[in-house]
């Protein structure tokens, strides 16, 4: 089989689903303006990855506001003042009809040598900010400008050398000219980091892999601890900048919830147990599970409890789900769909009905034992028609994404990723992933009287390696605390694979 040549492919997912934790709620135009019960004021976060929940200060900000605030995170990883509008997120934010918007951009607006489409000149950056302010006011929203969080660029003198000072100054000028309340997070974040130093500053960061595959600190994005440190700063400063909001800022600094405490322990190198559940496309023998477990570090106990031939229904009915829960895992990756679509009563579920009900049960059960649920959409089958992969799992993949959005659960959209990857190939190339003599495939062929020699559902060892790596690499772009627990590989040796949109997009 030829080496895969899919380079730098970014999934262009539509909508503002919580599938990637970015933002924290699904977007529905019909209910966008409906506020959480018991709240008196709505505040939207408008910005890039450094404002998101999983990679920025978003969740720390919202946690430091009282229960009377409906705090809505509309930030998007990789967004600039230009692309936030182009992607339609600005119009959706206006449709939520907030009372206040905290607007922060700059990281992705800054021009660089590669001249990405999202980048703009400083003059255009200023014009875009002014347009946001004007349009927010026209919609009855009170805008608040927030200078960009500094990157953690420490110099030999032990101090921060920011590359965003110009954007901060431009934003301050817009705020002064248009009489907009201002939070100078650039200055405050520099002052804090200068005071605590690089070593302590790294304790607020997530990690990433360098070109050699080694784990290094990310100088832009934040872990749970960093989110709560800088989120507190923004919340307190908002109360100072907008006095009428001061009563809505918690008087004491919010403490990390249990999920945050666990995540901090994980990112600091603590032990973690990951349990995989699903059907044969996850299981030992013909699924991506073995490839996923193979790229975990020794800190991880990786258990593949997936079983051949199971659906969301039969996995529960046969007691397999109880067995998996008894593992008391920290994270559960859950993928079904291939057998749910079959007509047999013992396995069938409806994509628009019982399938979603079962997924929600899995999520609730994992949360009840203190674990973190993750949904994975079904691995694509590899049968081609007219040069493209036949899409026979779309309904179940869409249902999985829908449940993830509703339940605010991370979704690894393996169905979309694997389909996009395969559509760059020929049938012959895709058959290089095919398993040989898999038990499920032989049973199905016998049932229909087929002697088809090719198994285009299950994976051989090479396919397990490729798709297991895809799941792992996409998982940690949202559940960032797991980043150090994935074994990296040199860029020169890696098989280039698709990446779905994630909170960590943008630098």
TrEMBL record:
Among Gene3D superfamilies, the record links this protein to: SGNH hydrolase
Keyword vocabulary terms for this entry: Hydrolase, Signal
Which region is the signal sequence? 1-19
Boundaries of each SGNH hydrolase-type esterase domain copy? 47-226, 277-465
Q: Which SUPFAM superfamilies match?
A: SGNH hydrolase
Keyword Signal recorded: yes
Matching entries from CDD domains are given as:
Rhamnogalacturan_acetylesterase_like
Q: What terms describe the molecular function in GO for this protein?
A: hydrolase activity, acting on ester bonds
Sequence similarity: Belongs to the 'GDSL' lipolytic enzyme family.
The name of this protein is Lysophospholipase L1
Q: Which organism is it from?
A: Granulicella rosea
